[in-house]
Amino acid sequence: MRRIRLDRPVSPGATLARDIVGRAGEVLARAGHPVSSRTFDVLRGRGVIWCYIHDRWGEGIDATPLDGGGATVRPLLRDFSRQIGILVAPFLTLSTPRALETLRSARPTAPLARSRFAADFPSMARVFIEDCAKAEAQAGYLVDRGAGGDLDGHAIGVAAVTSRLAGLVGMDARERVRAVCAALVHDVGMIFVPRHVLAIPHAQRSIPERIRYEDHTVLGEAMLEPFAGPSMHMAIVAGEHHEAADGTGYPHRREGGHRVLRTAEDQRALDRITLMSEVIAVTDTYERIISPGAGHEGISPAAARPLMEELAGRTLNREIVQRFLASFPALPLGTEVGITAGPHLGMTGIVSAVRAEGGDPPTVRLFLDAAGRPLDEPIEVVMRVPEVLIEITDHHAPHAVTPGRNRRVRSVQ
User: Fold this and answer.
1) pLDDT at 218
2) Which of 21, 107, 122, 133 is buried deepest, with most CB atoms within 10 A?
3) What was the pLDDT predicted at 258?
4) 244 and 347 share a domain?
């Protein structure tokens, strides 16, 4: 199974490997459906950019998304979104100051905090974490969101990556459950952002539209404040996940650290970003980079690495990003690449095997010749020649890598 953009070639007889979900969480196509150009055209018309397929060229490759248990989580998350939407519906058109005042005085979400949902949430998160642990990190931290505008899908993807990253930074089982719960509802304040604003790329939003978007943090925090006690971390993360390590984030311009271990003073400081929020800031950023969104079609985990490196130490905690990127290969399993030098110049292939050491060159399965024609039989090549350059074939995000050497990077907005 491999993850591809819908504009990439597939071998004859290819089928969908997973159900494809649309912007509203509806199933657009079922696993097992034959792949054709017409299928892809219809899916692109519904906002889908990526999908998972079984085909001959990807045989033996297991690029499984982390959020394989998303089908179990999504109904509960959809129910939560529906219930909280009903509770705050009278306040959605209020200005942010007025909405905050009302949310904190009237506490309309308090009934939900006392409902069975709140009690079931941690046990559901534990099952979800177990599901997410089944996917191989060698394929990168893939998610199952193929369409832009799927807010629940984004939350599930962030929670899935958080389930792995929380362990990498040393959180115990209890803290990982709390982090996953917080990740699932970190964007609850988006309910106050009009859909047409969400569909506008960030750089093209007017100042009022940008302010309303950024206010989803403080509004989400206010909505989750009734979830006190052992669930208070959910409100904290909702309010802090867009803060930046260098203090340039929003809404409170709090500074973070560049370490995982914190002194007792750092842990108590109200003007510092909490560790859990910094972890979810990394996973939120990564999920948005690899998945489609407003003005952005998503890229592969391999192409996302240089962007994450650029943000480390600026908006994101440097050590958390370093641990995250060190946990999967520079060219993960299933990455589609083009050969830009050497005896196979111009050919296209898929990374079919990676070394445990991570720095060694990968094995690439070539399936298109230099003219873009399918080969009669794919060719497996171990990229051992130092001068061979491999270019990741993501559109709008090309960059080249030399196996075992530093990468050449082009930034993507």
Assistant:
1) 97
2) 21
3) 64
4) no
Rounded to the nearest 5°, which phi and psi values hold at 350? -125, 140
Q: Percent of the chain having pLDDT more than 70?
A: 89
State the amino acid at position 343 in one-letter form: P
Whether residue 314 sits in one domain with residue 180:
yes
pLDDT in tens, 61-111: 999 999 876 777 888 888 999 999 999 999 999 999 999 999 999 999 999
- The pTM for the full model equals 0.91
In the chain, how many domains are there?
3
- What is d(CA 314, CA 329) in angstroms, rounded to the nearest whole number? 23
DSSP state of 147: B
- Chain centroid offset of residue 328 CA: 15
Domain membership of residue 65 (yes or no) is no
**Are 117 and 240 in a shared domain?**
yes
> Whole-angstrom Cα distance, residue 243 to residue 390?
35
pLDDT of 388 above 70: no
- The pLDDT of 167-187, averaged and rounded, is 95
User: What 3-state class would DSSP assign to 162?
Assistant: helix
How far is 372 from 347, CA to CA, in rounded Å? 7
**Residues 53 and 6 sit within 8 Å (Cβ to Cβ):** no
Domain range for 21 is 2-58
What secondary structure does DSSP assign to 287-329, as a single string? HHHHS-BTTB----HHHHHHHHHHHBTTTB-HHHHHHHHHTS-
In a domain, 291, yes or no: yes
Residue 16 and residue 93 in one domain: no
206: Cα separation from own chain's centroid: 26
**End-to-end Cα, the chain, rounded Å:** 29
State whether 251 and 180 are in the same domain: yes
For residues 386 and 243, membership in a common domain is answered with no
Comparing 157-161, 221-225, 328-332, the range with the smallest average pLDDT is: 328-332
Our CA angle for 183, 222, 100, nearest 5°, is 145
Last residue of a domain, one of 280, 304, 326: 326
The reported pLDDT for the residue numbered 404 is 38
Which tokens is 207 given?
């100042």
Under 8 Å between Cβ of 313 and 370: no
Please answer whether residues 217 and 241 qualify as being in contact, where contact means their C-beta atoms are separated by less than 8 angstroms: yes
Provide the b/e sequence for 51-64 (b: ≥16 CB within 10 Å): bbbbbebbeebebb
On whether residue 411 sits in a domain, the answer given is: no
Region for residue 3 given its phi and psi (left: phi exceeds 0; alpha: psi -120 to 50; beta: otherwise): beta
Q: Average pLDDT in the 133-159 region?
A: 92
Residues 279-299 pLDDT 10s: 999 999 999 999 999 888 999
